[in-house]
Each structure stands twice: as structure tokens, then as C-alpha cells.
Amino acid sequence: MEILQIPEKNHTPRILLDPQSGIFEFEGISLPEDLFAFYMPVLEWFDAYLASIRQVENRQLYPPAKVSFKFSYYNSGSVRMLIFILQKLKMITDIQPKTVITWYYEEEDLHLLDNGKDLAELTGVTFQFKVLKD
Question: Which residues are 104's β-sheet partners?
Fold first, then answer.
């Protein structure tokens, strides 16, 4: 599987999906003009990753994922995409139970913390919640 790396731009987050290291990162602002065009490669990547780890002989090729969400802001459309991503991560955690998903938030940004809790509850994904440190 190839690494998917999308650099951060003015209105889109940095995304790193590295199956060999197990590092999956989402960071920045998510306000893409075209949600589907931006997030479709991410969703397709997760579909391919899931297809690969569903094959028992491939599971040892990939370490359990360490997923981090470090959003500073996202719009309601991005929430829909996050739900799709989290549903795929739920399937991954069912196959790789040691997968860790961390939702980072600024200490004073309780709204972002509450949003993370809502997304976790809505999708059935277990998050660790951590305050961002400078």
C-alpha cells in the first residue's frame, strides 16, 4: 500500500496516511470548496487499506494504526466526511483492536472537545482526548 500525503493549504487539512508506520494524521482547518473532491482519495485509500487488512496474511504487514485528529476548525460539511472516515476507522479497530484514535483540542476550546465526543458517540469509535501542547 502506498502512503497518502496531502499537504495543508489555506482551507484544507494536512493528511498523512502511512500504513507501514501505522501513522494516520489529520491536522489543520477543513473548509474545502469541494468536499467530495478533497476527501474522496482519503475514503478510497481507507477502502483499499481495509481490503488489505481483511486478508489474514496481510495483517502482520501493518502495525496497529495510531490515528490523530488535530483540527483547529472544520465546517458542517467536513463533519459528514469525518463521519465517513470514522466509520471506516471503526471497521479497522474491529480488525486491529490495538488501533488508537486520539482527538486533540486546545484547552480553552471546549466546543471542539464536545464535537469530538459527539462524533465518537455517533460512530461508536473510542477516542482518547488530549489537550494540544505547544
Answer: 130
